[in-house]
Amino acid sequence: MRKPESATATGADAAANATSDSAADAAAGATSGATPGAGRTEHRHADRLHLPVWLAVAIAVLCGAGTAVQSRINGELARELGDPYTTAAISFGSGLVILLITLAVWRPGRVGFGKLRVQLRERRILWWMLFGGLAGAYFVTTQGLSAGVLGVAVFTVAIVAGQTIGGLVFDLIGLGPGGRRPVTATRLTGALLALAAIGWAVSGQLAHEVPLLLMLLPFAAGVGAAWQQAVNGRVRAAADSALTSTALNFIVGTTALVIVMFVHAGIEGFPAEFPTEPWLYLGGLMGCLFIAGQAIVVRIIGVLVLALAGVAGQLTAALALDLLAPTHGRVVDAATIGGTALALIAVGVASISRRRHRHRAASVGEGGSPGASTQPDASAQLETPARPGS
Predict the structure, then answer these.
(1) CA distance 74 to 69
(2) Which among 212, 221, 302, 327 would be 20 to 30 A from 36, CA to CA?
(3) What's the predicted TM-score (pTM) here?
(4) Residue-wise over 184-205: b if at least 16 C-beta within 10 A, else e?
């Protein structure tokens, strides 16, 4: 039996199989009726393009840390401007400028839009999957509205709660590019531990009259982020380019936020002056990096594991920020530290779940059942993923 993902693909292998990988994912999203032989061929191509699972999880952790840093940046910019809507438009708009410059010099990103049009025409990807940027727009708006008031740690754990629940649901229905992923006992335990960690982390700060209703904003943003990660993964696979999917996100998100900004400005007016500190305008760059990273790895580790790996990065970075530079004198207590540690344990439990699932998939393939594959979990899901809404 071939060992799954024993080594990463070389650059030549990846380039040679890029088209096959995109076609395999698109076919998987469109139907579950592929012939067994075709399914195995697609699996081999997809597997050779996959990063090792440990590296995909590490990237997800770094993306989570980037989310926490972006929350601090946008929260501080909103406080300086006194206008969260202009803050959100600046964050998304600056990211879009960066991506448009990158598209001008990177041809595969431009070619990806053509591939995406073909996939849409053939209904291998659904039109509403192109609007993940709306969830990102809402996410950055909640950063400006609530991160400065709640503190980065409380804001982040509310985000994580939404991501965890959303990740479980979207994996179960097969919204992500890897198809359906069962809710095993260890995956469910990891999610419950993450939610317990959230409750513990915020318990001390809730005693300091943190507005509970305000926490619903980042919670809903977390659910939206899980949905965004799933549909972005679909778009990335259809376009065969993370740059294409990220640029599309920022085009959609910036359009929505600029409209909201002008409506708000028509009522309240624009900010009188803008801060001069350059670091306050780096939120868009952070968004470019972690949205692209998430679109790449979601196919490998799934929506739930992506969310839980992001927990480690988000809570650790948020805790570090609140310890080293607390928001307006907010003090981090033992409950926040303990909750962060428990969240790390939850990620470990979810990782154990993935390794066991991969071993089960390999053993089924070895048994020679019809259409079975010896590929790891993410690739095995490509043959018969659920089409959302089917």
Answers:
(1) 9
(2) 302
(3) 0.68
(4) bebbbebbebbbebbebbbebb
